[in-house]
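S.,

Sequence below, as promised.
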Amino acid sequence: MAIWLPSVINAKNILRRSNSFAKRAASTFMDVPKGHLAIYVGESEKKRFVVPVSFLNHPSFQQLLGKAEEEFGFDHPMGGLTIPCSKDIFIDITSSLHELL
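The prediction came back faster than expected:
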């Protein structure tokens, strides 16, 4: 019985770690309200923004998405949508889009 005890303890530790990871991931998804998406913006240091899905249809936002496609393709380093532009430019564009909606 003592031979199996270390493997049982290891299994419990692995499950405990995976559960804590799942809870952190779920809290990240819960931070994004329905009808919105999380976007990472920045050239070196990335900042997370949450924007309405309706922005995806606007031509100025589609230009940003085109930049992201050119730079990253469909393999985004942050695991989510990453746009390679400065935060100031992104804020200017999204501010103007908020005024339009």
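Helices lie at 5-30, 59-72, 87-100.

Coffee later?
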